[in-house]
Design a protein that fits this description.
With 269 residues, this protein is α/β, with parallel strands linked by helices. It has helices at 2-11, 17-26, 41-56, 64-74, 77-96, 111-122, 138-148, 167-171, 191-196, 217-223, 232-240, 251-257; strands at 101-105, 129-133, 154-158, 177-182, 202-210, 245-248, 261-268. It has twelve helices and seven strands. The chain binds S-adenosylmethionine (SAM). S-adenosylmethionine (SAM) is lined by residues 61, 70, 74, 106-108, 111-112, 133-135, 159-162, 182-184, 187-188. S-adenosylmethionine binds at residues 61, 70, 74, 106-108, 111-112, 133-135, 159-162, 182-184, 187-188.
């Protein structure tokens, strides 16, 4: 988290221009790329894509064009920074305590997973991994990872986390289970926390959880693709049903940059 803190400060600096550009986009106006700091360009591009696609059709995660855009975003500096911190937190836990199974929900194209597998290979760790997504393309992601990391046990499942996990997935779990996810729970709503957490002994939740209660234009734009506005206080109520220890990992960064959200929540049974 210290590494993440240094990087956030040096890369993003001021995030507030995002409010102005998202307000313009929501009002249907054009926004030039240089209206946002270059580090925030991936977010601007995502919002532009959402405004364009949702005007013409339904948002469909399985749509190859959308998957491709997210893949591109995941390769951006901004998302890599989040991926690096996610992998850093997950891998420091699996190097410190014995974990039976690693589970990821909403894996998407699997960039975070791939980096984690790389990290595991470097440290000679072979905790079995289960990846999952509601999109059936998860089987291709699983296939690709198994090919790249033959020494690891990687299973993939289609799991819509608005529902209970598939029985076949649960049967593969060995306790303690470390479950992690990035940027997907708000697509399922708060109730999906109740579906995901029963199988997790430790949870790493990498999500924008709002701390101020104020909904901005970018939150409204994200709602267009089904990502609900998630408030930390409310999410915490759900997490408290399943975990006794809940911790905001990025408080130092939030304070230093005056951020309206926390991005790294750790919860332990
Ligand atoms: C923004 S992408 C994030 C992908 C990946 N976690 C990452 O950080 O690169 C959101 C992912 O959540 C998945 N998703 C959305 N709603 C879901 C649901 N109800 N159950 C399971 N996955 C879901 C989508 O299919 C998509 O792959």
């Amino acid at each position: 988290m210290e590494h993440y803190h240094q990087k956030m400060q040096s890369t993003i600096g001021d995030w507030k221009p995002l409010i102005g550009v998202s307000e313009k986009l929501l009002a249907g106006k054009e926004v030039a790329n240089d209206e946002a700091p270059s580090s925030l360009l991936p977010l601007l591009k995502l919002m532009q894509l959402i405004m364009k696609i949702t005007k013409e059709s339904e948002w469909d995660w399985s749509n190859p064009a959308i998957q491709e855009t997210f893949k591109g975003m995941a390769e951006s500096h901004l998302y890599k920074m989040f991926a690096e911190a996610t992998v850093g937190v997950v891998s420091s836990i699996i190097r410190t305590v014995e974990i039976g199974t690693l589970v990821e929900v909403g894996t998407g194209p699997g960039q975070v997973t791939e980096r984690l597998c790389e990290e595991m290979r470097q440290h000679n760790i072979a905790v079995p991994i289960i990846i999952s997504d509601k999109s059936p393309t998860i089987s291709d992601v699983g296939e690709k990872l198994r090919k790249s990391f033959p020494q690891l046990t990687i299973n993939d499942f289609v799991w819509d986390f608005k529902k209970d996990p598939p029985r076949e997935l649960v049967e593969k779990l060995t306790k303690p289970v470390l479950l992690f996810e990035r940027f997907c729970i708000p697509y399922g709503g708060y109730e999906s926390i109740d579906k995901i957490c029963p199988i997790a002994d430790i949870l790493i939740m990498v999500e924008d959880l709002n701390l101020t209660g104020k909904k901005e234009a970018y939150d409204v734009i994200m709602e267009r693709i089904g990502a609900q506005f998630f408030v930390y206080a409310e999410a915490k109520k759900y997490l408290e049903k399943h975990f006794s220890f809940i911790h905001i990992c990025d408080s130092k960064t939030i304070e230093a940059m005056n951020l309206p959200v926390t991005d790294f929540t750790l919860a332990i049974k």
